[in-house]
Design a protein that fits this description.
TIM Barrel, 2 domains, 8-stranded parallel beta sheet, about 10% strand, enoyl-[acyl-carrier-protein] reductase (NADH) activity, Enoyl[acyl-carrier-protein] reductase, Aldolase_TIM, oxidoreductase
Length: about 350
């Protein structure tokens, strides 16, 4: 028993900077997933000792306000809001968050400008940003960002080209003046522990929570997660650099295969003069419109966008959020205890 208590104390010391920054019991953030990270899942994560984050996505200020108020009715613990920096009403969204005393605002989907960061901080909230490279991480810290998330290509949804394993080695040794949270492909507590020992302050997880009991995702969506292996979570393909496609990781399905065919057809029509370059690009960009909602809400997992990280292979059952978090903590504690046993074992 004392070994387990000592191991838990070690874990608590390792992620104390993250817990202190978030105001949570454990330094585990919920990844902001459109249509999924809403009042039910966000409040469940915070109530379980983690830190839930509302995915604002394309919400209007009025819709975001409604979601914040509903979430606050379901939890008295802190939670954050993820805002897309390219949103045309970003300033108003920040105002809504500040008016409702949101403690942390995550600025995602691009590089936030200094004015937005200053607005968040002057309003009394903490500003969190994403750093896909060391140089950008340092720049964001100079601009006033108070914490960073480094997300590897193993993650679900829109991803960059670099794995978390490499990003952690590139960034964690060099950014120590703000908390850095790791994300992408995380499905076990012992994996989280390995990054904490490298200097991370905590971890962000999405895929495990998307398939939780409290997630409002359709039963078909969750069943697709249960059937999937890591290799089934693939990124969308760009056929020609003439028409750039931001890679999105999700489960391989007919929708993804149709998207590849659509790109080929758009390229052919552009080359033949049937479409202008702008028309061809728009036809590609509009393909996925509403596709995530179709999968998450309507349960269309064949033609919809079933966004999932490579950790989907570790989703074996639909469980309550509190149980998921407790398991992650238990796995990390067990890993510490077993390591200490190995280190001190007689030769």
């Amino acid at each position: 028993m004392s070994e387990t208590l000592n191991a838990r104390a070690t874990l608590d010391r390792l992620w104390k900077p993250g817990c202190d920054f978030l105001g949570s019991e454990v330094a585990i953030l919920g990844g902001a997933m459109s249509w999924v990270s809403e009042r039910h899942l966000v409040s469940a994560i915070s109530n379980a000792g983690g830190f839930g984050v509302i995915a604002c996505g394309a919400m209007s200020p009025e819709r975001l306000e409604e979601e914040i108020v509903a979430t606050q009715a379901m939890t008295k613990r802190p939670f954050g809001v993820n805002l897309i920096t390219m949103h045309p009403q970003l300033d108003r969204l920040v105002d809504v968050c500040l008016a409702h005393n949101i403690s942390h605002i995550v600025l995602a989907g691009g590089v936030p400008n200094s004015a937005t960061i200053r607005k968040v901080r002057d309003g009394g909230a903490r500003a969190i940003g994403f750093a896909p490279a060391l140089a950008l991480g340092k720049r964001l810290v100079r601009m006033g960002i108070e914490a960073l998330v480094i997300e590897g290509s193993e993650a679900g949804g829109h991803v960059g080209p670099v794995s978390l394993t490499v990003l952690a080695q590139e960034i964690l040794p060099h950014i120590r003046d703000v908390p850095v949270f790791v994300a992408g492909g995380l499905g076990r507590g012992d994996a989280i522990l390995s990054y904490l020992e490298q200097g991370a302050a905590g971890a962000q997880l999405g895929t495990l929570f998307a398939a939780s009991e409290e997630s409002i995702a359709h039963e078909n969506f969750k069943k697709a997660f249960l059937r999937a292996n890591a290799r089934d979570a693939v990124t969308t393909v760009q056929l020609d650099e003439l028409f750039p496609v931001i890679p999105v990781r999700g489960l391989s399905n007919e929708g993804g295969r149709n998207f590849a065919r659509l790109q080929g057809e758009a390229l052919r029509k552009f080359q033949s003069g049937e479409l202008t370059k702008e028309e061809a690009q728009l036809s590609i960009e509009h393909y996925w419109a509403g596709a995530l909602r179709r999968a998450v809400i309507d349960g269309d997992v064949e033609t919809g966008s079933v966004m999932a990280g490579q950790s989907v292979g570790m989703v074996k059952e639909v469980r309550p959020v509190a149980e998921i978090i407790a398991t992650l903590v238990e796995q990390a504690v067990d890993a510490i205890r077993q390591r200490e046993t190995r280190i001190h074992a007689p030769s």
